[in-house]
Amino acid sequence: MINSYEDLNKYLSQINAFISKEEGKREKIQEQIDNTKKALDNIQDEIDLLEKVNILFQKTSEFARNQAKFQIESLVTNCLQYVFENDIEFKIEIEELRNKPSADFYVITKENGTTIKTKPELSRGGGVVDIISLALRIAFLQIHKPKIQGPLILDEPAKHVSEDYIFNVADFLKKTSEMFERQIIIVTHNNHLSAIGTNAYRVTLKGTISEVSKVLID
Predict the structure, then answer these.
(1) What's the pLDDT at 177?
(2) 21, 40, 58, 82: most buried by Cβ count inside 10 Å?
(3) CB–CB of 195/174 below 8 Å?
């Protein structure tokens, strides 16, 4: 209760002190708001940067993937055309499934002006699959980084290829070894394939014992 002028001054002083205190709180809160806003702006800048980096990585990954795809398609196509002596082509189709790339393989042939696209296993029997499998192994070895050293080991690489094309397979393997300077070790029952080797050995089973003898190559 205010009864005098002094009481009024005292009351006004209390009010001014309260106002000053609240203004101090308001300034502190405003400072915190400003700092939070700056922090949010910095975070947004970082998010924008990360998004740009992610886009760059995606494009870089896509570019590298397309480069590898082109190299593999070219090598396998050349191998198929060399062996089967026609215009058969090998194609890879890549799509994103759950943010992961998935690849499907196809064989493209032309007949009477019509383009035919089939899965390798449905094209001309197992011979095409054998050659594609062989070419893919070679392609993966050559494009892998860092380069994979050591020989290429093959077990009956052309067991479904007809005798009409087996000479082409043998010649392709020989030229591949020379071109890429990579030793090729083949396990085979086919005399035409064994004949291309620098060294050849015959394994004969006698009872329970395997006998190894060197084969003279003309």
Answers:
(1) 92
(2) 82
(3) no
